[in-house]
Amino acid sequence: MSPKVIDHCALEAREEEIMKTALDIITELGVAGLTIDKVVAKVPYSKGTVYNHFTCKEDLLTGLCNRSVRNVAALFCRAVNFEGSSRERIFAIGYAYMLHSLLNPTEFMLVISAKTPSIREKSTEKRQEEHLALESKLLGSILQIISAGLSSGELNLQPHLSPAQVAFSLWSMCFGTIALLHETLDRCSVRTEMNLERELINHSNLLLDGLNWQPYTQDHDWANTIYKYKTELFQNEVEQLKLLQNG
Amino acid sequence: MSPKVIDHCALEAREEEIMKTALDIITELGVAGLTIDKVVAKVPYSKGTVYNHFTCKEDLLTGLCNRSVRNVAALFCRAVNFEGSSRERIFAIGYAYMLHSLLNPTEFMLVISAKTPSIREKSTEKRQEEHLALESKLLGSILQIISAGLSSGELNLQPHLSPAQVAFSLWSMCFGTIALLHETLDRCSVRTEMNLERELINHSNLLLDGLNWQPYTQDHDWANTIYKYKTELFQNEVEQLKLLQNG
DNA sequence: ACCTGAACACCGTTCAAGT
DNA sequence: ACCTGAACACCGTTCAAGT
């Protein structure tokens, strides 16, 4: 082993340690409560070393955002490979997104924060490009399922809609629903009567029926599909969530 | 006129002046670039006076957020009173939301920012309550149209959906679409091929068809309805937008 | 009663000195 | 070549002094 390889691993581990520490601070004190001083105090490196990894505070935030999107991408890959109809798989994408947002509320909020221009503009070019690549990966998973649905005939596109537009309608519906019902972000009068899982299922069904993606809501036992998500596809995540909500 | 009335008006005018100045700074430098010092430098009052109006920087941000939601509420009221079918009026709500986000990109971004716990928690109780009241008002407009649709028989609710759930599905769809396609917030590879107005119309049609809200997309000349929005209901806003996009 | 701005504590970022 | 932390400029917030 050359020293370079060792150094490289050590650098990566250190970067991960800095990011994990920053995430803990944000969970406790909010994005505005994050301070490089506080990170340095909890980590065995100096300020200068932190600034060797991240050019500024915003670059660190974008790094955290990308770390989170990488995890979502992994969940989406599992959804793509779920054994079932194309509609069951596209439905699993939204379910995965929801599970991730519930398991990692701070990260979900951070991804939204990191999109504001004031944060993005100050980040490294490298990390910004990484962010775009990761988002393309997410979209790739969705497009893969849409493509399968078109091949199998389960999805019949209306002539004025492209696959990218369909992918985008699903994405924005999931994003909007999760963002507005996310407890970390907001808790207003109306929303307290709403249940995220139930509403996401409703909205998905409305949209997928509207897109003519078969089998329709009334032609399939969707409760059973969700049972499979919970006990097979996302078993670990659902168990973690139970622990989190009980503890 | 008693001196109290004069003082009260002066106070309100001053508060508006502070908020407008803060908004200009955010438009130029982003939320992170907003500084009480910069506000004070542009305004004929001292730091202490600014802190008499807003207990802290976050309270000022929430104030700006409420100011923006008040304007949205006014547009929603106009949508409710549009002369047309209930579906034309509910469609106008989403259109109004979109126009507002395009005309006031900084404010749209700010409303999202102001929902993060770190900002909300530091704001005055009073301003937080005002925010909830304003959001209820928005929702009230949507519920009013849903109620009219139910009465006229144009909307037939599926048994498992309540009016509040329908209102929420429309809200989250509009929010998600506008947020993801908002240039101020994000500009990624996929999104550049997307056009906000076109996609919002698509998503609205898919959702409203899915909800069985008549007349269906194919049974009405929606292009004509949108023409009416542009030339009657929201004539001023559309003209302002043209000026903004050409200038 | 309200306004003012100096003063203080804290934070992001840099860079000369050290290894 | 990489690490360190003192130093600097800037910012949020307070409050004694002034009107």
Secondary structure blueprint with pairings:
The structure is a homodimer of 247-residue chains.
Chain A lengths: L2 H27 L6 H7 L4 H7 L3 H24 L5 H18 L1 H9 L3 H4 L4 H28 L10 H19 L14 H15 L11 H12 L1 H12 L1
Chain A binds a DNA duplex (19 and 19 nucleotides) through helix 2 and helix 3.
Strand proportion of chain A: under 5%
The CATH superfamily of the largest domain in chain A bears the name Tetracycline Repressor, domain 2
Number of domains of chain A: 2
N-C termini distance of chain A: 44 Å
SSE-based structural type of chain A: mainly alpha
Detail the poorly predicted runs of chain A. Answer: 1-5
> Largest interface by residue count?
A-B, 55 and 55 residues
The DSSP helix count of chain A reads 12
H/E series of chain A, N to C?
Answer: HHHHHHHHHHHH
Per CATH, the class of the largest domain in chain A reads: Mainly Alpha
CATH topology of the largest domain in chain A: Tetracycline Repressor, domain 2
Helix amount of chain A, in percent?
over 70%
Quaternary form: homodimer
Summarize the structure.
Chain A is mostly helical. Helix content of chain A is 74%, strand content 0%. Chain A starts with a helix and ends with a helix.
Describe it for me?
The structure is a homodimer of 247-residue chains. Chain A is mainly α and 247 residues long. Chain A has two domains: 54 residues, Arc Repressor Mutant, subunit A (Orthogonal Bundle), CATH 1.10.10; 181 residues, Tetracycline Repressor, domain 2 (Orthogonal Bundle), CATH 1.10.357. In chain A, 74% of the residues lie in helices and 0% in strands. Chain A is built from twelve helices and no strands. In chain A, α1 packs across α2, α5 runs antiparallel to α8 and α8 crosses α9. Chain A starts with a helix and ends with a helix. At the A-B interface, α6, α7, α8, α9 and α10 of A face α6, α7, α8, α9 and α10 of B. The first copy, chain A, binds a DNA duplex (19 and 19 nucleotides) through α2 and α3.
